[in-house]
Design brief:
With 382 residues, the protein is of the alpha/beta class. Helix content is 24%, strand content 15%. The chain has an eight-stranded parallel barrel with strand order 3-4-7-8-11-12-15-16, surrounded by six helices. A four-stranded antiparallel β-sheet has the order 5-6-14-13, with no helix packed on it. The radius of gyration is 20 Å and the shape is globular. Bound molecules: flavin mononucleotide. Flavin mononucleotide binds next to loops.
Length: 382
């Protein structure tokens, strides 16, 4: 856990680049002690493992596995492992430690119309199995982002998806208009978990009508592939997901952080300068799994999973509940090389299962019967 402290700053929106460090640790999992590999991963394969096709021969190491994933509107990622917004800066910060072009995609730090200095410190703290952050969307504003990074991104084969945030529909539309047609921008990821000033502080992500209206407005403003990021801070995400899909999103991303607080050392006030922070890391994986499971059953657009990925088994779990791709976030602070390693491990997993594509791994844990109850998530009663 020390490693994360070293790389997450209270003043910056992204990790301190670990790129100057010549040797990068490659721990198995940054947040949990090394655990036994679970069924479904190569190391634990047995004859009874449902992931193994009976009689399937291993795909020889030299043969490629098709990891491509189509997120719609021409956005085809080379593989399904992306890095999550706010945890990989603008990509350039990591370019000397990681071969960024081996990633499936980069979601850059949340970008707003005007520069934002972010929230008061402290902005991050550790929690059991994760972290709380309240960076507050610190960023230099869309014009500065374009000026500084667009040319570099345009020279990279890896698709860069710009994470867009705003306080009103007009903000989102204006940012997107400035991104539209610029070189190096492969798509937009709408972060709609921001206060909607136009509607009295409501977050767009917690109201189906508000979520649909911002999605529709952005859809009208650009032909860029449009991903919309769901918030877990709702009782039932399904109507919101459906409304966003109906409003023209090409794909959904799930999930953003869970709202939480920590208490200061003297117990006189909450610890974070902003009081509230967003919980991320392995602690939120079960919630993310539940939401991906629910959402992937009610929309027909691709779902990209985010939440607590630290190893291949997490990727396989998210694919099993219907995700077509996965973003790695908090775990990057402890190990920036993890996402690229996961690309290789996923290909290796497919080869050992006799698969020439990872697609058969998608949706294996979803209900088999059409019309079956999709979940007990929001309805769950202990
Ligand atoms: C320090 C930090 C900054 C983040 N900044 C953003 C952001 O700007 N926009 C956004 O949509 N999500 C942001 N997130 C949320 C992540 O993209 C991701 O959805 C969340 O952390 C869950 O994934 P994880 O458990 O793998 O970290 C941030 C997360 C962290 C930890």
């Amino acid at each position: 856990m020390k490693a994360r402290r070293r790389v997450v700053t209270a003043s910056g929106a992204s990790a301190q680049p670990a790129r100057r460090t010549p040797t990068v640790r490659t721990p198995k999992s940054p947040f949990v002690p090394a655990r036994q590999r679970r069924p479904g991963t190569a190391a634990s394969r047995t004859a009874g493992d449902p992931g193994v096709r009976p009689g399937a021969a291993e795909v020889p190491a030299g043969l490629p596995v098709d990891l491509r994933v189509d997120l719609g509107r021409g956005l085809v990622l080379p593989n399904p492992i992306l890095v999550a917004s706010g945890t990989f800066g603008y990509g350039t910060e990591y370019a000397e430690v990681v071969d960024v072009n081996r990633l499936g995609g980069i979601c850059c730090k949340g970008t707003t119309l005007k520069p934002r200095i972010g929230n008061p410190t402290p902005r991050v703290t550790e929690t059991p199995g994760g972290m709380l952050n309240s960076i507050g969307l610190q960023n230099p504003g869309v014009d500065a982002v374009l000026e500084k990074y667009a040319d570099t991104w345009a020279g990279w084969p890896v698709p860069v998806i710009v994470n867009v945030a705003g306080e009103s529909v007009g903000d989102y539309v204006e940012v997107v208009k400035r991104l539209d047609g610029m070189p190096g921008i492969a798509g937009i990821e709408l972060n709609i978990s921001c206060p909607n000033v136009g509607r009295g502080g409501l977050q767009f992500a917690i109201d189906a009508d508000a979520a649909a209206s911002v999605t529709a407005a952005v859809r009208r403003a650009t032909d860029l592939p449009l991903l919309v990021k769901l918030s877990p801070n709702v009782s039932d995400v399904r109507p919101i997901a459906r409304a966003i899909a109906d409003a023209g999103a090409d794909a959904l991303c799930a999930i953003n952080t869970l709202s939480g607080i920590a208490v200061g050392p003297a117990r006189e006030r909450p610890l974070l300068g902003n009081i509230y922070g967003g919980l991320s890391g392995p602690a939120i994986k079960p919630v993310a799994l539940r939401i991906v499971y629910e959402v992937s059953q009610v929309v027909s657009i691709p779902v990209v999973a985010i939440g607590g990925v630290t190893e291949l088994a997490d990727v396989l779990d998210f694919l099993a509940v219907g995700a077509v791709a996965v973003q790695v976030g908090t775990a990057i602070f402890a190990d920036p090389t993890l996402p690229v390693r996961l690309v290789d491990e996923l290909a290796g997993e497919c080869r050992q299962r006799g698969l020439t594509s990872y697609r058969p791994l998608i949706g294996t844990a979803l209900p088999k019967r059409a019309g079956a109850p999709s979940s007990k998530g929001a309805e769950y009663r202990p």
